[in-house]
Amino acid sequence: MVSISQQNKTLFKSRSSKDIAFSQRDSVTIVHLSDLHLACTDGISWHQLLNKRILGYLRWRLGRRREFDYRIFAILERELQQIKPDHVIITGDLTHLGLPSEFKAVSKWLEKLGPSERITIVPGNHDTYVETDWAQTFFMWEGYILPYSSYEGRLPPPGLEDVFPILHQVKNVAIIGVSTAVPCPWHLAIGEVGTGQLRKLEAMLEEAASMGCFRIIALHHPPGLGSIGSRKALKDAGRLVRILEDRGCELILHGHSHQSLCYTLKGPRGDIPVIEAPSALCVRSSKSRKARYFTCKIVGSGQKGWKCRVEDRIFSNFQKGFVSVKQEEFVIAGSSHRSGRRS
Ligand SMILES: [Fe+2]
Ligand SMILES: [Fe+2]
Fold this sequence. Notes:
12 strands; alpha/beta; Purple Acid Phosphatase, chain A, domain 2
């Protein structure tokens, strides 16, 4: 694994093809944010704390709240209005204790960002901190989830694993949101994709490839084996990695570790770039953990190939806004540049 600020240039150029001409006309700009941890602990009842939440609540009151600055919400709104992305992806832990009041506050903020068809959210472990009632939690985010799910069962759905993966298509970019969020024991922050989602994900990747789409997988937990301690890891990362090795995708975005990282996973035609965004609201001094978001500008087609320009934007206390610290580019050869290989 390589920090994005230290990454070597060969990382993003490993799949390059020199002679691809790209049209900017159909470019798609994606903004990737993660781990907002919007906490609403004022007025919390003891009844709501008679479970695992008591730990998260005490940690928050005893210091963790000082890591986050909610004034950055307004700064993000302003910057996104300027960037005018085609789509925003938020990779989990939007809430801190999974409280109904936090789900409500998040949905109010999402409304300010833009219409639901321009936003993909996937839940994180903090959004399922304890077992909760759909009607009091994810019901408030249904507009971002259900219209993009293949789930056709009864409402409310039995669980996240039934409605994910979800698919947002933006021109020729397919954004596949996978849920890794599961309520887990007190000392754990693990995730799980589950057999049903893995099966649907495999089919979605295949279909999106046959349509010539640039495929982005968005999830909360790191998909790489051994990239995080077992207490916080994805239980079925091995099964997910095997699907990625077989079906491939063009980009993976995730959060969870609260660090900025860029690394690769093995795909059927070479390395798959993986970008981890830290919390978009963290004001800790460590550079790798400081508030950041990424923009990805994608141009190309499945036949001609793709170019993706990634801009790394870090929060500056001095400038009271995000500043660009790095721009990298990766190029993927299209099917017309390959022969005898699966598209
Ligand atoms: Fe988080
Ligand atoms: Fe997390």
